[in-house]
Every structure is written in structure tokens, then in C-alpha cells.
Design brief:
The complex is a heterodimer of chains A (263) and B (252). Chain A is an alpha/beta fold and 263 residues long. Chain A is 42% helix and 17% strand. Chain A has a seven-stranded parallel β-sheet with strand order 1-2-3-4-5-6-7. The model of chain A has no long low-confidence stretch (mean pLDDT 97). The longest helix of chain B is centred in the last third of the chain and has 17 residues, at 231-247. Chain B has an eight-stranded parallel β-sheet, with helices on both faces. In chain B, strand 5 (132-135), helix 7 (142-151) and strand 6 form a beta-alpha-beta unit. Chain B is globular. Classes of the chains: A alpha/beta (263), B alpha/beta (252).
């Protein structure tokens, strides 16, 4: 049953019910990682899980890129070409080891396969507002691109500095400054170009309800860090949350589709 | 699908409350009905954060003893301080109170994690098939647990590994080495993890657990319902394994 008060949840668990609800995933990775066993890390296995949950498109940054820079990015572009429309790549800004001109040439040569940029201060060791990231953020700002930030407690100030300076890029707050739910929701109210994203949030009962009560559902985006975590667990959590079915559909698809101009 | 949740907690704990605190058992039952959970093993958060051990244990007894859908766990501390009954007496009291296991949390209750500390209870648990519920959040590391299981290899352990990171490298060796270790799935949420684990070891050592009231009932439910595993495997996880464990307890 999952949630007897949600028609959407009841429809979803029926045979074939998944097909009625499209999902857009704003926070994914790909490949193996040295410190964890992820059995479904390949593109093909991720696609299998995406199809199982009707995830139409996944925006990802490869584990290789996060940990070693963009030396394997051509392999990931090939995956995007092999499965058109199903995967879009965030170019990782591995701040101390980047060549901006080279990166942007690659970005522009493969524009349809890139969603935007990814900042992950825990891997890069560089604060989001550090000068090393500036050329990428300026480029994203000029072109109105999504920038997925790994936002965690303690990173509030540097990310807010980015928002104060850049008004046209779309900053996606991955993990919602875990566990600063109220701060995240207020940031979404204060900055038009900030979008909370739900990876790790949905593990905590009540966190989403808290955020929706502050900033509504219209800016919140779905993601679950696949191949780390399970789509079905996260969607089950979303179905269980004390919000409306309309708000669930906003989060799973509508908000993201509007942000990316998808139909 | 019938669901028997092996990990439910609730109660009043002041500033440690989650955003949507669940103060009493009536709210638990209401939310179980809303999600479609049929039965649950429960403990009260007051058993970890409240007054004395006996009061916390008494509170959960009062909640479950007249409710066939709920099974309680009592907290253990070393018998040497005589705050709770010794293992023989404790076991006799359990059946009438609908208590099916012992929850052990050395960090919360401030006692040593060495195996000898609770050896009288562990010996009784092995002889009578009483499951012990251990969450790594309560203080035992996996290495502490292995030390206990080296001394009491027949002990039935329902293990909650308190970390959602992909955890098979930690958990599979324990499952391989110790035949009565069962995994509560409340924080085992790796993409494709159920399918991969079952291919490795089958479904008999996995238990549906939600971690409610800190997490949602429906999250783990959908993970089981939509997994690409057989209906029999789903049923094993959803309720059969937990019922088998409870059915094996020898109260007499």
C-alpha cells in the first residue's frame, strides 16, 4: 500500500503503474569507486534501474571525474552518445587540475550531451567560491547553465557567495546542506536561481515536509545518487511523505523538465 | 504483500526528536495502517534516552502486551548491577509481555563492549534462540560484534548497520562467517543491492526494516516490492524470516 492517502502511490505499485509517472534524476554518478562496492555502477545496469522506475533522463558526474579529474570524460561522452537523451553529463570542476580552455572546447563540441557543471568540494578540496572555480561559474552564468553543487552542512557561506555573485546560472543544492533543511528552503526563497535537490534528504522522515512548508514544492528536484542509492527506496519515501500527489509530480518531473526545457 | 517490520521506534526524547516525532503507540499503529504494515518489532526511544532501564522496558511492555500486531524488545545492561532481572527470570517475563528480543546499546547505557559483560544473557539467548537486536548506532562496531560472535557463534543477531553508504564489504563477511546474523534492511539501500545480495546468498538472512519513525515505512517497502527478485524472496524478506525467528524462541 505504501500510502493509502496517495492515489499516486496506489497506482504506482500496480503492475505497469510505474509507466504513468516520469522521473527526471538530477543527481547521479557512474562507474565504480575505490571505497565502496556498487553492483549497478555501469551505464547498462543504471539504465536497467532507470527503466524499472521510469527515469527518462539522468544527469550524472562520473566517479572517475570526481576523483581523478576529466581524463576519462571522453568515455562518458561516448555513453551519452550511445544512449541519446537518457544520460547527460555534468562536467566536473576538479578545481586544481583543470584546463578551462580545453574543458570548454570539449563542452561546446559535445554541447547536447552536457547538462552543466558539477562542484564537489569534498573531492576537489576547493571551496565553491574559490577563484579557481570562477571561469566555470562565469561561463555557466553567461549561458544560464545548471551547476550541481555538493552542498553539505558547513558549506552554506561559500555557496551563498556564489549565489550572491552569479544570478543567471542555476545552482542545484545537492543534499540540501544536509541536514540544514530550513536554511536550504529559505535559500530557495531568497534566490530565484537556487534549487534544492533531494539526495540523502528523503532518508530522513520529515525533512521534505519541513522544506515544502517553507518554500513549497515548485523548486525541489529529484535525485538519489544512483548507483549509490536505490530509486525505489527514494520514490517510496517520496510517496510516503506528507505532501500532495501534485507536489510529488512536481518533484519527480515537472520542476526539472521546466528547468531543462524538456517536454 | 504482508509486511513485518523488524525496526520501529517511537517515543519522547526532547531535542533529539526527528522533525515529525511520534510520541505514542497509537500514532505508530495509525501510520502502520496508512502504509500497510501488518506487524512490527518495536522499542521506545525512552529506552535509550529516558530514565532508568526498567522504566523504559516497562513502557514498551505496556504498549505491546495486548496488541497482537506489535512485538517489543527490552534493553539489556549487565546483570551485575541488578537493575533488571537476570536472564532466567527475564525470559520468563517476556512471553506474557509479548517481548521477543533484547536490544543492546552499550554507548547509550555506558557499559563495556567486551563479550564477557553480557555473557549470561548471551548464553541464555543461544540456548533459547532469543534474538538480540544490535544497531551500530548503539555502540557496538562490527568488530565488537565479531568478538561477541566468536564467543557465542550460535547467537541470533538482527543487525542494523547505521550507515547508508554501500556497505556490502562490511556486511557480507559477517553474514558468511556467522550463520545466525540477519540484516535489517532499513539502511541497506544500495542501487540493485537486494538483487545482488540475493544472487550471492539468497534471501533468508534479510529482514524488512523501515527505521520508522526516523525514516518512512514506504521507502523500504517499495524497494522490496519493485526488486527484480522472486515473489518467494520478497515474502522471505517482507515477513517470513522474521516470523521464523520469533517462532524459534524457546520461552520455557
Amino acid at each position: 500500500m505504501i500510502n493509502k492517502d496517495s492515489l499516486m502511490a496506489q497506482e504506482y505499485i500496480k503492475p505497469g503503474g510505474v509507466s504513468g509517472y516520469k522521473v527526471l534524476d538530477f543527481h547521479a554518478h557512474m562507474g565504480n569507486l575505490v571505497n565502496s562496492y556498487m553492483p549497478f555502477g555501469s551505464a547498462e545496469k543504471m539504465l536497467y534501474l532507470m527503466d524499472q522506475s521510469n527515469v527518462r533522463c539522468t544527469l550524472f558526474s562520473g566517479h572517475n571525474d570526481l576523483t581523478m579529474g576529466n581524463r576519462f570524460i571522453h568515455d562518458e561522452i561516448e555513453i551519452c552518445k550511445r544512449y541519446p537523451g537518457r544520460f547527460k553529463l555534468y562536467m566536473t570542476v576538479f578545481s586544481r587540475h583543470c584546463d578551462f580552455k580545453k574543458d570548454i572546447a570539449l563542452f561546446e563540441a559535445n554541447r547536447e550531451h552536457f547538462a552543466g557543471f558539477k562542484l564537489h568540494p569534498s573531492y576537489s578540496g576547493i571551496r565553491p567560491d574559490h577563484p579557481l572555480n570562477e571561469p566555470y561559474l562565469e561561463y555557466a552564468d553567461i549561458h544560464g547553465l545548471p551547476v550541481l553543487g555538493h552542498t553539505w552542512r558547513g558549506l552554506e557561506e561559500p555557496y551563498e557567495n556564489v549565489l550572491k555573485r552569479y544570478k543567471n546560472l542555476k545552482l542545484i543544492g545537492g543534499h540540501c546542506f544536509f541536514d540544514r533543511w530550513d536554511f536550504t528552503a529559505r535559500l530557495a526563497l531568497s534566490y530565484e536561481n537556487f534549487y534544492p535537490e533531494l539526495t540523502a534528504v528523503l532518508v530522513k522522515r520529515g525533512a521534505l515536509e519541513e522544506m515544502v512548508s517553507v518554500c513549497g514544492s515548485k523548486k525541489i528536484l529529484f535525485g538519489c545518487d544512483i548507483p549509490w542509492f536505490s530509486y525505489t527506496y527514494y520514490i517510496g519515501a517520496l510517496f510516503s511523505a506528507d505532501i500532495s500527489d501534485e507536489q510529488r509530480q512536481d518533484i519527480l518531473w515537472n520542476n526539472g523538465a521546466a528547468l531543462l526545457n524538456m517536454t | 504483500m504482508y509486511f513485518f517490520d523488524c525496526n520501529v521506534s517511537y517515543g519522547v526524547i526532547g531535542d533529539k526528536n526527528p522533525f515529525m516525532p511520534v510520541d505514542d503507540v497509537e500514532q505508530v499503529l495509525k501510520d502502520m495502517d496508512k502504509a500497510g504494515i501488518h506487524k512490527a518489532v518495536v522499542y521506545r526511544k525512552e529506552q535509550l534516552h529516558g530514565a532508568d532501564i526498567a522504566t523504559g522496558n516497562c513502557m514498551v511492555s505496556l504498549d505491546v502486551k495486548d496488541n497482537p500486531r506489535l512485538y517489543g524488545c527490552w534493553s539489556l545492561v549487565p546483570s551485575d548491577t541488578e537493575e533488571i532481572q537476570g536472564p532466567d527470570q527475564l525470559l520468563k517475563s517476556m512471553k506474557q509481555d509479548h517481548i521477543i528480543g533484547w536490544r543492546i546499546s552499550p554507548s547509550y547505557h555506558r557499559f563495556s563492549k567486551k563479550p564477557y559483560v553480557l555473557e549470561d544473557y548471551f548464553e541464555k539467548a543461544c540456548r533459547c534462540n532469543v534474538p538480540v537486536f544490535i544497531s551500530t548506532a548503539g555502540g557496538y562496531s562490527l568488530d565488537d560484534l565479531a568478538d561477541i560472535l566468536d564467543c557465542f557463534p550460535k547467537l541470533t543477531v538482527i543487525l542494523t548497520y547505521d550507515n547508508i553508504w554501500p556497505n556490502d564489504r562490511y556486511l557480507r563477511p559477517l553474514v558468511r562467517k556467522y550463520e545466525n546474523v540477519y540484516l535489517d534492511l532499513s539502511q541497506v539501500i544500495t542501487a540493485g543491492g537486494l538483487e545482488d545480495f540475493i544472487q550471492w546468498k539468497g534471501s533468508h538472512r534479510l529482514l524488512f526494516g523501515s527505521g520508522y519513525s526516523d525514516s518512512y515505512f514506504g521507502a523500504g517497502m517499495l524497494q522490496v516490492l519493485k526488486a527484480n527478485i522472486s515473489e518467494k524472496d520478497k515474502e522471505n524478506i517482507a515477513y517470513i524470516n522474521m516470523e521464523r525467528i520469533i517462532g524459534g524462541i524457546r520461552y520455557d
